[in-house]
């Protein structure tokens, strides 16, 4: 029998694989690095949360490079500090595209900065995947893709989910105080919650607003105490909720129920006054979410890195999960399109469901939004636990009231 050189090499390779019992190693990236650029609020009022997004991005880039990079190239992430300022974010994204000449973009943290980045992406026809944009109606650009799965109508759908859950309480709230930051997405969601509460028959006993960046919450706490509501809706972002709870504690007041829009997750769980705080989420570090092996691997990596970085909370929660999801979407778009061309990536994402640690996401709805996948969570025993819908609840977890 004639045995060709090709067959010998093929057989030898197969035998080596069988003997090792291990999967083949990813091919080492070659060529010029693939550069992905973004900004984050590494300083300023939003830094407490943005640091989580930075850690997640670093983890994902390391993971994807261990798998062989993207398009056979090592991935490098160029991240700049926008200082929690949307105007600065706009300038920095211009630099990333024109001066740094990055191959692709990744969105920043918080609605204002994302809207600024979206304008730059539109000007240069770049795909922009983003993770925390809170006003879907403003997402007019056809090559932007949200990882924050709150659907196209969150001011109604998210608010109704909250009030559906509250109806399961032993004594459902009848009165509500709404106090909110004027931060764009927070204000938008709070006004939506205000209207839904009225439609559901809750009596509004107080409505107050504050300017983003405010640090004096004493007068607001006093007004809430005087109103004595069954439920306090707190339209907060970052550490604002913690500061308001601290101000309430100083006047010996604890709200029976308090819901927070977008608190800094770690600081809220570590604050004793944050016990039983309610908020929204897409993912928390417990079953059924951690049944996904990719999610479980990410949770392990994040726990270790967050501990080493001395973050106040080492758990994977809504912010970390949204950030990881954004990177998954971008990678899926590149691989699905088999291209770094922004238009081809966008076309692929619009036509296909994408596997993420949240579940399968679609981008074929209004503003490229898909389904509202938001859940309601509560701080219980120093950790966030999903309590609604019940099929996503942590084992044994349900609404706790004072």
Automatic annotation (TrEMBL):
One Pfam family, short name: Peripla_BP_6
SUPFAM superfamilies per the UniProt record, alphabetical: Periplasmic binding protein-like I
Gene Ontology biological process terms from the UniProt entry: amino acid transport
Domain Leucine-binding protein: 33-382
Domain of life: Bacteria
Record keywords, A-Z: Amino-acid transport, Signal, Transport
Alphabetized CDD domains for the sequence: PBP1_ABC_ligand_binding-like (cd06338)
The keyword Phosphoprotein belongs to this UniProt entry's keyword annotation: no
Signal peptide: 1-26
Gene3D superfamilies tied to this protein: 3.40.50.2300
Keyword Transport carried by entry: yes
Protein family (similarity comment): Belongs to the leucine-binding protein family.
Name of the protein this chain belongs to: ABC transporter substrate-binding protein
Record organism: Ramlibacter pinisoli
Taxonomic lineage of the native organism: Bacteria, Pseudomonadati, Pseudomonadota, Betaproteobacteria, Burkholderiales
């Amino acid at each position: 029998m004639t045995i060709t050189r090709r067959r010998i090499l093929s057989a030898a390779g197969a035998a080596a694989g069988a003997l090792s019992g291990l999967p083949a190693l990813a091919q080492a990236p070659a060529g010029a690095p693939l550069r992905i650029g973004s900004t984050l609020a590494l300083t300023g009022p939003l830094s407490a949360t943005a640091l989580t997004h930075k850690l997640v991005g670093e983890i994902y880039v390391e993971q994807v490079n261990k798998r062989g990079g993207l398009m056979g190239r090592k991935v490098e992430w160029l991240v700049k500090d926008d200082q929690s300022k949307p105007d600065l974010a706009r300038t920095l994204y211009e630099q990333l595209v024109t001066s740094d000449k990055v191959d692709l973009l990744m969105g920043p943290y918080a609605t204002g900065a994302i809207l600024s980045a979206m304008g730059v992406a539109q000007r240069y026809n770049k795909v922009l995947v983003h993770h925390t944009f809170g006003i879907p109606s403003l997402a007019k650009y056809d090559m932007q893709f949200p990882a924050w799965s709150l659907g196209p109508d969150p001011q109604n759908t998210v608010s109704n989910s909250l009030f559906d859950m509250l109806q399961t309480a032993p004594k459902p709230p009848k009165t509500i105080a709404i106090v909110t930051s004027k931060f764009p997405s927070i204000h938008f969601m709070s006004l939506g919650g205000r209207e839904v509460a009225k439609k559901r028959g809750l009596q509004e006993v107080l409505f107050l607003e504050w300017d983003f960046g405010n640090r004096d919450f004493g007068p607001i706490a006093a007004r809430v105490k005087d109103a004595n509501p069954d439920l306090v809706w707190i339209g907060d972002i970052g550490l604002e909720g913690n500061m308001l709870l601290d101000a309430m504690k100083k006047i010996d007041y604890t709200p029976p129920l308090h819901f927070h829009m977008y608190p800094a997750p770690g600081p809220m769980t570590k604050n004793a006054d944050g016990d039983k705080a309610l908020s929204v989420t897409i993912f928390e570090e417990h079953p059924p979410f951690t049944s996904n092996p990719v999610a479980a691997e990410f949770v392990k990596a994040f726990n270790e890195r967050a501990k080493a970085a001395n973050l106040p909370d080492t758990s994977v929660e809504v912010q970390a999960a949204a950030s990881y999801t954004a990177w998954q979407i971008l990678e899926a778009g590149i691989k699905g399109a088999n291209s770094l061309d922004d238009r081809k990536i966008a076309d692929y994402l619009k036509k296909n469901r994408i596997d993420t640690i949240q579940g399968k996401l679609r981008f074929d709805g209004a503003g490229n939004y898909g389904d509202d996948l938001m859940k309601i969570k509560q701080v219980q025993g120093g950790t966030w636990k999903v309590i609604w819908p019940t099929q996503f609840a942590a084992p044994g977890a349900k609404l706790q009231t004072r």
